[in-house]
Each structure stands twice: as structure tokens, then as C-alpha cells.
Write a structure and sequence with these properties.
Layout: H1 7-14, H2 35-43, E1 53-57, H3 62-75, E2 80-83, E3 95-97, E4 100-101, H4 104-124, H5 132-146, E5 151-155, E6 172-175, H6 183-186, H7 190-197, E7 207-209, H8 214-226, E8 231-233, H9 234-237, E9 239-246, E10 249-256, E11 259-265, H10 270-288, H11 295-303, E12 312-315, E13 320-323, H12 329-342, E14 347-352, H13 360-367, E15 372-377, H14 387-396, E16 401-405, H15 408-418, E17 423-428, H16 431-442
Parallel strand pairs: 1-5, 1-6, 2-5, 6-7, 7-8, 13-17, 14-15, 14-17, 15-16
Antiparallel strand pairs: 2-3, 3-4, 9-10, 10-11, 12-13
């Protein structure tokens, strides 16, 4: 096969692999395994074993927490790689040095270097074709090792136990907030989902755990005990106060073991406070393991953190414009709470679009707490629900639906045309909606892909 010469060719070739994230077919989680991933890593020299790592799972907050840890490690002088998903505007965002995505040229080189190994494992490995997510994770490890980075922060994709990232032996594991999401794949209860997320806990490796329900803690603690892993429950070890919050950020005071850390966190919401404490817990666990991380780097890393589409204020006033990638009932509850606490407005114009595998009805129910009107949109994502379904769900719960659009940009333009100075315009329901509004507002050229079945 002719190897790609351009970014477009590399993108097309990589996306010829099976992609459960964008495809309409729902995978059978019982058929998931790590054998094919391990074969692929064997073929490329097991680069994941050459770099110390942090592994982070959870339903919500794992991306923000991963970014915070990366920002702190980078501020402390570590050349740090970051693996996250999904991306907003370009697949290169999934593989970062610090918080900066790799270049398109680097992505082309990754596809060219790894494709012979992908074909070999797919054709003769005995476990079927390598998936796109597996390729991207393997490419991340390969890139970090090739670039001689000193640390990597790895966010899981779906679940944890059978996730393609679960091939590393990290220095610290962490589990952020667990709630109901992807129930058709991971389980119908938070305890079942916790079992899948807890699969990243390794023998003898400390695990930092966010505030959870008692049932979730019971599941995770049992897994940690079985693995003789130190269980660090942040709600027991850290106390935190938030003062002087405004739309530019929130000033936090975090106390633990006689140490007080004061800093301003640019990310808003009580959930981001929880994520910041988990990030601090991870850093403290690394320090206890002998890694040198200066206190001023902890503060600097947290104060400089940028993570798009998480209560992302695009315009402060006249009207205020905010996007947030909330895509399940729990995250939508946190978003509505944050909006009510940090923004001043008379009416919220909600540009709403969801993916077909998410709990649309319960998310819209959370929005009923706001004085709002709904503008339904269908994003470019292959799994995006049609706005007529949003209209129907709004009708079921008596939520004020005013208009629908087949295009997010059209919905955004319409919302701006009807907005008063005292209104707030919000784009939410999925990361894809948030991303497309950012693209429209900031004139970012979107990266589009061929449709999948």
C-alpha cells in the first residue's frame, strides 16, 4: 500500500479503521479485550513501558483533571505527553506535548511509521482489525517515546478495565466522578460502571479517588484492597474553600496535612473544584513516590490551565456567550448550577444538540431549572440526533422550544439575532455542538470526515 504523503491522506487512511466513537454500530462490551492492543504495542516496541505515567478514568472530569496534571508537570519542567479524547477541531488534539497538540506533519509521520504494524496485526494477529482508537493510543505512546518525553498523562476512553489505554503500569492512578453514562455498554448502575472504571487500579499503585457515592467507594475500595493499592480518598485528605468567584475564575484555598495552597482556577464550577483537588492529590502522590515537583509549579500549573468547551466563556457580555460540552444528566446538572452561580442573565437561549446514545430527556429536564428557550440543532457528528427529536422531548416536559436547525452555525446565528443584552447564549448537549460554535465564533476551519455506517 502507498503510504500517505499529506495530512489529508494520513487522516483518511487512519480513519479507514473501525471507529466505534463515530460509527452507528454499538459495540458489544463483552467482546472487548486487550490482546490486539498488546500485539500492536509489541510490534512497535512497547513504547508505553519507557515513560512514567498517570492514568485517569471517570465519567466526568477526567479530561479536565488530566489537563491540570499535565499543566502542573509541564510547569515543573517535565516534558509531558497528554492523551485525551474526543477532540474538538482536529485529531491532532488527542496527542499533545504539554497542552499543545502535535503538528499535522507529526501525525503524517506517525501514520507512515506505524501503518505496516497496523496491517500486520490486523491481517495475521488473530484478533481482527485494529480499531482507530487503538491506533491513536498506540501512536501516542510511540510519539512520546520517540520525542523522549519524561512523563505522560493518559485519559481513558470508554470505561477503563478493557479500554485500550489500560496497558500501562502507571505511577499513580486516579478516578474522577462516576455517574450514569454509556449504560448500554458499561452497566445500568453506578456500581457496575465503577467496576469498569476501577479496572485501571494496578497492584501496588496508589489510586486517587474523587468524591463518590458510598456504593461507588465500596466497589473501588474493594478493587484497591485486592490489588494492595493505597486508596487516597480526596474528601478525607483535603478541605477546600472557594472565595471571590466570578466569570473569570474562582479563587481556591486547599488545605491538607498542614499545607495551604491558594490559587485562582480559570475553570468554573464546583465540579472543577473537585477535579482540581484530584489533580493535587495525584501530584502529592507522585511527590510521595520521589518525583520532584515544586510547590510554585503546582500553583502556576493550575492558574494557567486552559481547557476548551468546559464552561467556556466566548463573550462576556451583550450578550454573554458560553459553550459547555455537558452530555449526560449529571454534567448538565453541574452546568446549570454553574451558569446560575456565575452568570447574570434574564433569559438563557440554549442551542442544544445531543448524540443518539445519550440521555436527552433527562438532560433537557435539568435545563428546566433555568429561565430558558431551546434552539434545537443537529451537529456534524454521525451520531447526532435530529432537532425534531429534541422538539418532541421538549414538548414532553413542557420546555419552551422555539426553532430547529440542521446546522449548528445556523442555530448560533439565529440565537444571536434574537438575543437581548441581558440574555446569555449557551451551546451545550455534546462536545460537538460546543466545538462547532467555537469554530463559528473564532473562524476556525472545521476538520470534516467521511460518513460512517
Amino acid at each position: 500500500m502507498k503510504l500517505p504523503q499529506t495530512y489529508a491522506e494520513a487522516l483518511t487512511l487512519s480513519m479507514s479503521l473501525v471507529d466505534f466513537e463515530r460509527g452507528s454500530r454499538i459495540p458489544d462490551h463483552h467482546t472487548f479485550h486487550l490482546e490486539r492492543m498488546n500485539l500492536l504495542l509489541d510490534e512497535i516496541g512497547n513504547p508505553q513501558n519507557s515513560i512514567p505515567s498517570v492514568h485517569i478514568a471517570g465519567t466526568k472530569g477526567k479530561g479536565s483533571t488530566s489537563a491540570m496534571v499535565t499543566s502542573i508537570l509541564t510547569a515543573s519542567g517535565y516534558k509531558t505527553g497528554l492523551i485525551t479524547s474526543p477532540h474538538l477541531h482536529s485529531v491532532t488534539e488527542r496527542i499533545r506535548h504539554g497542552l499543545e497538540p502535535i503538528t499535522r506533519l507529526a501525525f503524517v509521520d506517525l501514520v507512515r511509521d506505524l501503518w505496516p504494524c497496523v496491517e500486520k496485526v490486523s491481517c495475521s494477529g488473530g484478533f481482527g482489525g485494529v480499531t482507530w482508537f487503538e491506533f491513536m493510543i498506540a501512536a501516542s505512546f510511540y510519539d512520546f517515546a520517540k520525542s523522549r518525553l519524561g512523563f505522560m498523562v493518559v485519559e481513558t476512553g470508554l470505561g477503563g478495565r478493557l479500554d485500550a489505554t489500560n496497558v500501562i503500569l502507571p505511577q499513580v492512578s486516579a478516578i474522577t466522578s462516576i455517574s450514569l453514562d454509556h449504560t448500554n455498554i458499561l452497566g445500568d448502575t453506578v456500581e457496575e460502571i465503577a467496576f469498569e472504571k476501577g479496572g485501571i487500579i494496578k497492584s501496588g499503585v496508589p489510586v486517587v479517588v474523587s468524591d463518590q457515592t458510598e456504593g461507588v467507594h465500596d466497589v473501588l475500595h474493594a478493587i484497591a484492597k485486592k490489588n494492595q493499592a493505597q486508596y487516597i480518598k480526596v474528601s478525607d485528605k483535603y478541605s477546600v474553600q472557594s472565595v471571590f468567584p466570578d466569570i473569570s475564575g474562582q479563587t481556591l484555598s486547599v488545605r491538607s496535612d498542614g499545607r495551604l495552597r491558594n490559587f485562582k482556577l480559570p475553570l468554573l464550577g464546583t465540579h472543577q473544584i473537585e477535579n482540581a483537588v484530584v489533580a493535587i492529590g495525584i501530584i502529592d502522590a507522585l511527590k510521595n513516590n520521589g518525583y520532584e515537583i515544586e510547590e510554585q509549579s503546582v500553583i502556576k500549573g493550575l492558574e494557567k490551565i486552559k481547557w476548551r468547551a468546559r464552561f467556556d466563556v466566548l463573550q462576556v457580555r451583550s450578550p454573554t456567550i458560553i459553550v459547555d460540552g455537558a452530555h449526560n444528566p449529571y454534567s448538565m446538572e453541574r452546568f446549570t448550577e454553574t451558569l446560575a452561580n456565575y452568570a447574570t442573565f434574564e433569559r438563557a437561549i440554549i442551542i442544544y444538540g445531543a448524540l443518539s446514545n445519550h440521555e436527552m430527556g433527562d438532560m433537557l429536564l435539568a435545563l428546566k431549572k433555568l429561565p430558558c428557550v431551546i434552539v434545537g440543532v443537529k451537529s456534524r457528528h454521525p451520531k447526532a440526533s435530529h432537532h425534531s427529536e429534541i422538539e418532541e422531548k421538549c414538548g414532553d416536559i413542557n420546555l419552551d422550544y422555539i426553532r430547529g436547525f440542521d446546522d449548528v452555525s445556523e442555530g448560533f446565528i439565529y440565537a444571536q439575532s434574537i438575543a437581548r443584552e441581558t440574555d446569555v447564549i449557551v451551546g451545550t448537549g455534546s462536545l460537538s455542538v460546543a466545538a462547532e460554535i467555537i469554530e463559528n465564533y473564532e473562524n476556525i476551519l472545521p476538520e470534516t470526515y467521511d460518513s460512517l455506517l
